[in-house]
Predict the 3D structure of the following.
Amino acid sequence: MIETLKIIFACIAGAIIYGIVHDQITARICIEYFTVFHPPVFVTQSPTLLGLGWGIIATWWVGLLLGLLLALSARAGSRPKLSAAQQIRPIARLLLVTACCALIGGLTGFVLTSHGFFAEPDWIAPPLVSSSYPAFVADWCAHSASYASGFVGGITLCILQYRKRVRVESSTATP
């Protein structure tokens, strides 16, 4: 049970750390992404405080969900169990891939918007200065890419860890 809780905690901690770092960057790219287009949870214009607060709020639950699924994949049933320590590298790899996807998504959104491929919709015009639109789209794309790649990567990670248990079991089985 302790190993299961360690896996869940590792995923929550990893997600929160990722979220804080991610939001520290994106809050500096376009602060309006947080101050105008998010509910007013924090009354501040500080990108540091917004990144810290939203980095926690927007990711702890993702880490919990991944932690529960990963703990099941690594520990449930009669197959050989994987430890929490064995999950640290795969979790770190998932976060690194997610960060790369966020970077690619953000850059793609910024470049496409800067070159006129995404026109500014009417509903954005009043609260956002037109010159901030490419930065807003960069943030939106970076966040969307993080969630999408984290979801797909998290499911993939769970499948890979379960398959690892199957391989360990079959390699230790006696004929």
Notes: The mean pLDDT is 92. The helical segments are 2-29, 32-35, 47-57, 60-75, 85-114, 133-172. The first helix runs from residue 2 to 29. The chain is about 75% helix and 0% strand.
